[in-house]
Amino acid sequence: MPVIELRGIKREYRMESKSSSKNGADAIIVRALRGVDFSAESGEFVSVMGPSGSGKSTLMNILGCLDKPSGGTYTLDGIETSVSDSDTFAYIRNRKIGFVFQSFNLLARTTALENVELPLFYRRRGKNEDRGASWNRSGSARKERATTVLREVGLEQRMDHFPSQLSGGQQQRVAIARAMVNDPAFILADEPTGNLDTGMTLEIMGLFQELNKRGKTIIMVTHEPELAVYTKRIITLRDGELVSDEQVKERRNALDDLAKWKQDHALLSEQAPAEQSPAEEAS
Ligand SMILES: Nc1ncnc2c1ncn2[C@@H]1O[C@H](COP(=O)(O)OP(=O)(O)OP(=O)(O)O)[C@@H](O)[C@H]1O
Ligand SMILES: [Mg+2]
After folding, report:
1. Of 10, 11, 12, 13, best ligand 1 pocket probe by most atoms within 8 Å of the beta carbon
2. Ligand 2 centroid to 83 CA: how many Å?
3. Is the pLDDT assigned to residue 283 strictly greater than 50?
4. The predicted structure's pLDDT at residue 57
5. Which of 75, 108, 189, 190 has the largest count of CB atoms under 10 Å?
6. Which of 122-126, 161-165, 186-190 has the lowest mean pLDDT?
7. Ligand 1 atom 14, closest CA
8. How many Å apart are CA 144 and CA 139, to the nearest integer?
9. Where is average pLDDT lowest: 186-190, 191-195, 279-283?
10. Is the CATH number 1.20.1250.20 carried by domain 4-16+28-270?
């Protein structure tokens, strides 16, 4: 059974034009998605690409249960979301999807550990629960669960740090741990490395590859073809339609590329001329 199954997904925005008469005859319909079919199995790692305005954000909002389509059906982990009431819809969003954003979205006055624990407080039992998970029962169980996922992202040494005491890459690791803490059906990442330099970008892509190897399903929006080659499959949108869907043929390993990048970087800084001291400059 696929984790995600989209059938004929449409999303239309109705814009009342300024000159329109009261009966709305002049309304403009923007067809942001025009019947998208897409499904993903457990364990996939998919890039969503396409030019600006092609419908990527619209599709992400629908995949993330932040928005409902105007037409078509979306089945997530066997649950038909289009017909669900708003409670069920919110439950699916909180429990089945782990969000990772470009801007990390961590709480500033809250430690890494507390940021990761947060989704466990909001966790409510759904109608047809549960897989026997015990980490929502007590404070110590929550802490243990949050510690486990922070360890999985390599941050066990930084659990008591506040976001401002962490590098961008480390902050994004905290956000990834937070996305995983409820053991979601998939991780939905929107330009997750958009605010990171090359080294940190490769680190985060390496972490995603590692998590994916351990079975996590990941859907990632990216503008950059050089990042898409770290995923396993690329879908491309154009004008609201899915125009291509391909497996990545020559998949790259992000940690290998990181090692190479670090080597080149070290060479470069060795070759750079030593900085002049102010005294030398003055003379
Ligand atoms: N709330 C809205 N009301 C009206 N039209 C909208 C709305 N949101 C998006 N659109 C339109 O839908 C189309 C798809 O927009 P979308 O934001 O999904 O594109 P995108 O692929 O994410 O672009 P970008 O790469 O620039 O983020 C665009 O033509 C856009 O103008
Ligand atoms: Mg967008």
Report:
1. 13
2. 26
3. no
4. 92
5. 189
6. 122-126
7. 55
8. 9
9. 279-283
10. no
